[in-house]
Amino acid sequence: MVDNEWTFAVKDQPYRIVGEPDRGGLLIVGDHASNRIPQGVDLGIATPELHRHIAWDIGVADVAELIVGQYPCAAFLGNVSRLVTDLNRYPSDADVVPKQSDGLFIPGNDLSEEQREDRIERYFVPYHDKLTAILFEHRPTLILSLHSFTPSLASRPKEQRPWEVGVLYNDAEEPSKHAIAFLDNAGICVGDQLPYSGKILNATMNRHAEANAIPYVGIELRQNEVDHRAGQERFARILIEMCHYVSEKLGLGLQKP
After folding, report:
1. What is the CA radius of gyration of the chain?
2. Residues with Cβ < 8 Å from 143, sequence gap 6 or more?
3. Which pTM was predicted?
4. What are the distances in angstroms from CA 52 to CA 94, 188, 243?
5. What DSSP string runs through 75-132?
6. Residue-wise over 112-139: b if at least 16 C-beta within 10 A, else e?
7. Where are the alpha helices (DSSP H) in 161-226?
8. Could you tell me the fold of the domain covering 5-250?
């Protein structure tokens, strides 16, 4: 794990920062990078559930930290479980505080409207306020939005998910199209808007990247590819090279790895 003054300064917040954001550089954003449950929040579920995909994006924090350790960039990572609040949603969305996930009922999230608003104010709002501030003070050249997806859903066991990597986007398609070409040429089974569509699930990038005309690539890594060190190191290297390739194609001028 990369440790520095930024990481220390925000360790008890709903976000943490690895590396030092730099204007004109690369910024990694990982909304679901942690399965941490803050003190005072009781979800009413068994502890083993927090190690499943429903609680976080497995592998994302490790891959992000490896990238920061190998390339001059920073990572802005969610530091609470997506079961506490889903940071990649809009505050008005019903599932910003999810009452169920992949068939599991979450009794601690059966909240009154006042309790729901308090949860959002405590964790969701500070995360997005801080990201807004970073983008204003240290506007990056490119954002790498990093997520991971489970190979199979308990609620849809017959659904096939063969993609090693999915690339998601909404209106800003060009950076992701270059990313897809790079990954395909690297021999990776890549999904274009798979296993999800960025036209539907893209809240953080819609709000912070597209609204500010910052180029970004939305990446979903299949979790069994990055739940171990060798896979994390492999994809850290691949994503560094992919970001540089996208930068070259767009003329953004990111430092060569």
Report:
1. 17
2. 26, 27, 28, 29, 205, 208, 209, 214, 215, 216, 217
3. 0.94
4. 22, 25, 29
5. EEEE-S-TTT--SSS-TTSGGGS-SEETTEE-GGG---HHHHHHHIIIIIHHHHHHHH
6. eeeebeebbebbbeebbebbeebbeeee
7. 174-185, 203-208
8. Aminopeptidase (3.40.630)
Which residue is listed with tokens 């767009």? 250
Cα 118 from Cα 127, distance rounded (Å): 14
Q: What is the pLDDT along the chain (257 residues), one digit of tens a residue?
A: 444 434 434 557 999 999 999 999 999 999 999 999 999 999 999 999 999 999 999 999 999 999 999 999 999 999 999 999 999 999 999 999 999 998 899 999 999 999 999 999 999 999 999 999 999 999 999 999 999 999 877 667 777 789 999 999 999 999 999 999 999 999 999 999 999 899 999 999 999 999 999 999 999 999 999 999 999 999 999 999 999 999 999 999 999 98
CA distances from 194 to 162, 169, 201, 202 (A): 10, 10, 11, 13
Q: Which residues of 39-70 are buried (b: 16+ CB within 10 A; e: fewer)?
A: eebebebeeebbebbbbbbbbbbbbbbbbbee
Q: Give the H or E element holding residue 240.
A: helix 229-250
Q: Report yes or no: 14 and 127 within 8 Å, Cβ to Cβ.
A: yes
Cα(220)–Cα(235) distance, integer angstroms: 11
What are the residues whose beta carbons fall under 8 Å from the beta carbon of 40, sequence distance 6 or more? none
Q: In whole angstroms, what is the distance from residue 37 CA to residue 245 CA?
A: 37
Instruction: Return d(Cα 35, Cα 227) in angstroms, integer.
Output: 14
DSSP assignment, residue 215?
-
Q: Quote the tokens at residue 162.
A: 């063969």
Read off the amino acid at residue 180.
I
